[in-house]
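Open question from group meeting: does this chain pack into something compact, or does most of it stay loose? Before anyone orders reagents, we agreed to write out a predicted structure and look at it together. Recording both the input and the output here so the notebook holds the full record.
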Amino acid sequence: MMHMTMRWYGPDQDKITLKQIRQVPGMEGVITALHEIPAGEAWPEEKVRERKAIVEKAGLKLMGIESINVHEDIKYGGKNRDELIDNYIKSLEAVGKNDIHMVCYNFMPVFDWTRTDLALPLPDGSTALAYDGKIIEGLSAEEMFDRIANASNGFEMPGWELNRRDEITAQIKKFEGMTGDELRANYKYFLDAIMPTCEKYNIKMGVHPDDPSYDLFGLPRICKCEEDLVKIAEMNTSPCNGFSLCTGSLGSNPNNNLPKIIRNPKIAPRIYFAHVRNVLYTGDHQFHESSHVSHTGSLDLYEIMKALIEVGFNGLIRPDHGREIWDEIARPGYGLYDRALGATYLIGLEEAIRKGKGEAYPNDINSVTAKI
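Structure tokens returned:
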């Protein structure tokens, strides 16, 4: 059985409460992080313990971390990377000592996920995250900041915070001319350094794919297709080196066959976390996020869930992003209502697929949290 979770930004940064999350049928726990601690600084063990206590007091489990952000100097191989990696290892130790065993992270230079619109109006009255390559792929970073300021519904996009404009512009220049292979070499250096600690505490590291799965702003991107994932799997053979398989990120490129990627024998056993959502293609390098229901988007979530079950995936899963529906105003992609609908849809798909195969499926899934 997969274990349903929802991302929670913490008591000071998320308007969605743990009480609300617990009321979603089948919800076992949350994925969270110490977002107040800047990338590169070590997480104190007691801060992780405090966050875990808050979650458990609400009747949920803290089931994983998303993310311990990788500092940009590690990614481009700065002279202080060893010191930053040591701090990253200290953060992993703080997580492991608190009995948390999954960390989702990314190795995307400078930016996290990128969109051109954080609140695109859809015909049904909802709004959604959207990407239009015709707009973004012709913009400079400075022009992108201007667009975000005017099309963000009052929120900011991770990695594109307006108060970091000068800093981020400078970071882009550091990566100018870097090849994918050079970034991979820096990534391997990072993995080789952290894997002994991950193995000591049984922390499964799930790298998140590039989002969207295209090259942007001249920056190298090394986690955007099946071939890239295989290279990462072979980069360090530790069983703790794995993937957070995000269907919306990989699925942003229609050339990525998601069920085939999931079934790849070099990838399948290393999927430790699944972000399962849908996107609707509207043109070449153009899409917007949709509801999770298969026929409302371009991805067949039934086939995706079927592939995950066939390869034996029993790890953590979350509905990832959702639209803003029913007049909700929330962090883009992270409102309550559509993610709750997505979670129950995914649980229903899993139940139907497993029972269709003659497998038992628990009818008392919420008992997992009731026993905390």
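Observations to bring back to the group:
DSSP finds 14 helices and twelve strands in the chain.
Residues 3-370 form a domain with the TIM Barrel fold (CATH 3.20.20.150).
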